[in-house]
Amino acid sequence: MPEIRVGLIGFGTVGAGTVEALFKNRELIEDRVGAAIVLKKIADLDTETDRGIQVDSTLLTTDAMEIIDDPEIDVVLELMGGCDKAREFITMAMERGKHVVTANKALIAQHGKELFETAARCGVDIAFEASVGGGIPIIRAMREGLAANQIEAVLAILNGTSNYILTRMTQEGLSFDEALALARRLGYAEADATLDIDGSDAAHKLTIIVSLVFGHPCTYEDVYKEGIDNISPEDIRFAGEFGYCVKLLAIARQVDGQIEARLHPAFVPLDHILANVNEAYNAVYIEGDFVGPTLFYGLGAGRRPTGSAVVSDLMDIARNHIKGISRRVSPLSFARSPARELSLRPMDQVSTDYYFRFSAVDRPGVLSKISGVLGENNISIASVIQKKRGARGSVPVVMLTHEAKESDVRKSLKIIDQMDVVVEKTVLYRVERKTGI
Amino acid sequence: MPEIRVGLIGFGTVGAGTVEALFKNRELIEDRVGAAIVLKKIADLDTETDRGIQVDSTLLTTDAMEIIDDPEIDVVLELMGGCDKAREFITMAMERGKHVVTANKALIAQHGKELFETAARCGVDIAFEASVGGGIPIIRAMREGLAANQIEAVLAILNGTSNYILTRMTQEGLSFDEALALARRLGYAEADATLDIDGSDAAHKLTIIVSLVFGHPCTYEDVYKEGIDNISPEDIRFAGEFGYCVKLLAIARQVDGQIEARLHPAFVPLDHILANVNEAYNAVYIEGDFVGPTLFYGLGAGRRPTGSAVVSDLMDIARNHIKGISRRVSPLSFARSPARELSLRPMDQVSTDYYFRFSAVDRPGVLSKISGVLGENNISIASVIQKKRGARGSVPVVMLTHEAKESDVRKSLKIIDQMDVVVEKTVLYRVERKTGI
Lengths: 437, 437
Hints:
2 copies of one chain form a homodimer.
Chain A: E1 3-9, H1 13-24, H2 26-33, E2 36-43, E3 60-61, H3 65-68, E4 75-78, H4 84-95, E5 99-102, H5 105-122, E6 126-127, H6 138-145, E7 151-157, H7 160-172, H8 176-185, H9 194-197, H10 200-214, E8 224-225, H11 233-242, E9 244-255, E10 258-269, E11 281-288, E12 292-299, H12 303-322, E13 351-361, H13 366-376, E14 381-386, E15 394-401, E16 404-405, H14 406-417, E17 422-431
Parallel strand pairs in A: 1-2, 1-4, 2-3, 4-5, 5-6, 8-10, 10-17
Antiparallel strand pairs in A: 7-9, 7-11, 9-10, 11-12, 13-15, 13-16, 13-17, 14-15
Helix pairs in contact in A: 1-12, 4-5, 5-10, 7-8, 13-14
């Protein structure tokens, strides 16, 4: 039986899950691939901590170069995370003719272009299924399964921690802080959950999705990003009254030859399949011009799901290796650069429906003043709820608008927030329209 | 640019959708694959009917042999349906060194073993993504994306017509006949919807899924099958009272080294993601030992979704062709036959939870008699609803059981249905337990 030899850099959570899958399902993997996948070396600065998986101590090294410089190693798994060192190791590995599998979303989102060019120059594969959606084979779906389609829209829940927090806020009415504390206690959030909560993690993944959809590497900085730290249970309740829930949504959409790429909390209609994606689950909803609406759902993080994705990439490379080929599918699934350039639509040019919650003094004529400003800025109101007087003498006035332009919205709210009848900064959510799906 | 030449046999709905995708997205497909996919010939007995797509009349022929015998054609698309002729054409095409793409679930379910052997002997690929789940890239997910996993369970909604009918019965309380008539009127059901309703269509797809999960061709006859024609709105209402909905579910599950393969209406917990798969959508829920629970959702039929799947297979073969390889992944994703044999569990050995609706005379002690028989046969009751007297002087007694064995259930119901206090045949549904997912 042919062999493919693997070196692993980074023996943390994902590394341990990967090794566990390779060991536990060794026979199945060999039956499927028709080759033995031999783990030859594991590099980590810490070779002492127990990862809950029995590994021959002779495999362990603290020196990643022992893997990168080993001429017998065919594939390097980069599972250490971080950018600078990982980028350096991956580049050196590719330059020595090794294929690379990585789970590093930040690295691909920030340095994908350069890494893909290096891979092309060196004639090796670089695979990154684990970087988006954990165990969900979403990269493969976009690169191969849906390859016949123009992708018209992607709506995705890409951060399990945020989704867990929003689920608790929605189902139990917890505050953001309470839900975050619970998520920490149950292991759904790290001690420092900043990258989950401020949207960075999901925005990295969205960057990769946009690149895959359009065949041009998209830059992380071009993606609009808002996190979930300002979401209040009050707005979640109002969302429910209007027939929506609140999700941290990654959106990529083709509009008039441009691409919207934005990550922010959004109202999702309760009858949309994404509204039923709860707890720490991830899901990617894709609309293609032929396939129509599709959804891919599963665990977006965790040792074993991520290990599943890493090993699937490894099996893919092994299947190529046996046939003596590489680069059967290029990283972004385009054998040649698409003629059409990637043109990202600036956020202030985006049009969508909106939800506003105004905190106004309880006085006649206030709604008329507010709606006057909106009307002057081409924003028309679809429905309004006005509640009883609040604790501080102000009343929440909440409304959904018809489609409006972000720049008009920003202009209006600037004016409205300076009115003397408005006592707090207006709260804004973008709304995904009811689609009937 | 390299070329790959294609012949299409069967210019019906799926054929037209395939041609439409190849034409409309030609540039995208060429950019992705790096080769031109050239449609060289289309064979159909009917070359007159307008398929809503402009095709050069010189491409058309009534003689499939013109394609099969054309040495310039690399890939044959078999989209004619039916078994005998299709099997003959595919076999001849493979024997002439051509790869085959088919959407023919009945053919793969009934003759997969033989066709896969022929493909292996001839060194060609046979691809069938379109045969299960329409546009959903589920075969690819099982063969590649989740390849690192032992698949522990598959629960799937695989027939759009049935799901549409059940959705209308559930949401609007229609009878089966009313919902079927509506489905016909709106084009969700053919004039003869027998194969959809009696479960044959979904059972074919389940046969293919079981084969993929375990790497051995499963035989259609081995799959247990019940359709939806006996479902009553009354049971759907009771299901709702217990917190369930009714779906036509294809189930493949590993239990004690054996495999359950069954297709029947089942109670699905309302908080399960599958309970939210409505209208004509299909969905495949897969649990792997590493990936955990996943769901793949989309349109399981129709011209364009199925065309999307056929063209994705074609692009896959084209990507191999350019690299000068074939059979990179074998049809069932196993390079060598798994050591473990496929052992299907007979239906009467299956254990699951049950729902019963007894039609009993309204007399004291009836429930005690019924539950006595159940108890003697190792069936314990989880909850009971007893309603008021029905129209014919009988009362429905409905209950959910704890896990019980199918053979015990059949034995009990045989006894109960002969009791003089029981006036109609007892209705039985199998229940998927609440999973919290």
